[in-house]
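FORM 7B: Structural annotation worksheet

SECTION A. Query
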Amino acid sequence: MTITTPATSPDQLLEPVWDIALLFPAQGAWTEAEYMALETNHLVEFSNGHLEVLSMPTRSHQQIVLFLYRLLFDFVASRRLGTLLIAPFRVRLWPGKFREPDLIFMATAHRAREHNDYFEGADLVVEVVSGEPSDRERDVVTKRGEYARAGIQEYWLVDPQLETVTVLTLRDATYVTYGIFKRGESARSPLLTGFAAAVDAILDAAAV
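SECTION B. Predicted structure
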C-alpha cells in the first residue's frame, strides 16, 4: 500500500510555527517567575512584564568583554574583593526590572545580595556599546538611568566606535563622569582603588 502525504510548498516549509507563541504570556503580561523560568540561548532582559530580546554579541564585542574580565578578575581575586561574573547573568535592578550587563562585580560586603539565579543589584557593571543605534541608546542613555536608580556605584561604558572608555560614578543618586578615557590613556576605577586598564589594550582586544 502506498501512503501519500499532502504536497508542501516552499512557502509553507518556511512558515514559522506561530502557535508556539500562544504557549507563552503576551508582552506586558510576563511575571518575574515566568521570566526566571525561561530557558533560551539568547540574551533576554525583563522590564515591567515585557521581554527584551537582545542581539547576539559579535566576536569583537566578546573579545573586549573577555579581555576586561581577565584584567578585573586578576585584580579582584588577588585581593579577595568580591565576585565578578560575565553575561549572560541576571541582575535585578528593582521589582519588575532585570538587566544582563556584560560584566558584573559585587563586593564582598554585599554578598547577601548574591543569589544563584540572579544578583540584587551590583557594585560595578560594564557594558560594551554595540554599533546599532537602538543598542547605543539602550546602553548610553536608558541603562545609565536604570543603573543609577538601582544604586550601582560605578558604570563603565566601552565604546569601540568612539574609541573611548567612559567611567561613571554615582553621586546623589545620579551618575557623574569620573573620566572619558581615550587611546594613549588608562581608564581608572574610583571604586576599585588601584585598578587601571589601558584603553589601547581594551580596544585592540577586538582584533586579537
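SECTION C. Observations
The mean pLDDT is 87. Helices lie at 10-13, 32-36, 59-79, 133-149, 199-204.

SECTION D. Sign-off
Analyst initials: ____
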